[in-house]
Amino acid sequence: MTEPQKTARHSWLDDMQGLLFGVTMCAFGLAILTEAGFVTGQTAGLAVLIGYATGWDFGPVFFAINLPFYALALRRMGLRFTLKTFAAVALLSVLTTLLPRMIAFEHLSPAAAAVLFGLVSGAGLLALFRHGASLGGVGIVALYLQDRTGFRAGYAQLLFDIMVFGAALLVMEPAAVGWSLLGAAVLNLVIAVNHRRDRYIAT
């Protein structure tokens, strides 16, 4: 019987490209989301809702919301994870400000916007998770719960999403919230199916 193959630790170059890819995909997903007037879950969804309600830019709001979560990240996930997550959050805050100036959508149906947001952002978050980072906030708590209890990160995030969508009904049309829920379901399904420590362990 052959011995199980050992996994190699990611190099700093591996991590750099992984973080850049992941953050860029998430920023693109958010560009699709906000162009359609939808919302998502987690801290990103909270930041989007605050932006819709106040007119504030997503980037600074998202960066500020994440600040309290770094204490948990440092204590529970370690310095390496915390630094990577801080860098990912900061980069996303910048990219979400720049991308709308670089791309525009002539036509974007609600169904396409919801599904594409979920797929693109799910791929981006997977890249971040697999390179030892997250986009902060609920993602930190979800990853911690998965490592400690085995409860899937995608499912934990979906529970928080439901609470965000409940708040969204106060400031958005029900149809937009419904399409937003589809996007979040696709995103979390991508994570739940693909983020498996028994299939991919390298960090």
UniProtKB/TrEMBL annotation:
<dbReference type="InterPro" id="IPR051461">
    <property type="entry name" value="UPF0750_membrane"/>
</dbReference>
<protein>
    <submittedName>
        <fullName>YitT family protein</fullName>
    </submittedName>
</protein>
<feature type="transmembrane region" description="Helical">
    <location>
        <begin position="20"/>
        <end position="40"/>
    </location>
</feature>
<keyword id="KW-1003">Cell membrane</keyword>
<keyword id="KW-1133">Transmembrane helix</keyword>
<feature type="transmembrane region" description="Helical">
    <location>
        <begin position="111"/>
        <end position="129"/>
    </location>
</feature>
<dbReference type="InterPro" id="IPR003740">
    <property type="entry name" value="YitT"/>
</dbReference>
<feature type="transmembrane region" description="Helical">
    <location>
        <begin position="176"/>
        <end position="193"/>
    </location>
</feature>
<feature type="transmembrane region" description="Helical">
    <location>
        <begin position="85"/>
        <end position="105"/>
    </location>
</feature>
<feature type="transmembrane region" description="Helical">
    <location>
        <begin position="150"/>
        <end position="170"/>
    </location>
</feature>
<feature type="transmembrane region" description="Helical">
    <location>
        <begin position="46"/>
        <end position="73"/>
    </location>
</feature>
<keyword id="KW-0472">Membrane</keyword>
<keyword id="KW-0812">Transmembrane</keyword>
<dbReference type="Pfam" id="PF02588">
    <property type="entry name" value="YitT_membrane"/>
</dbReference>
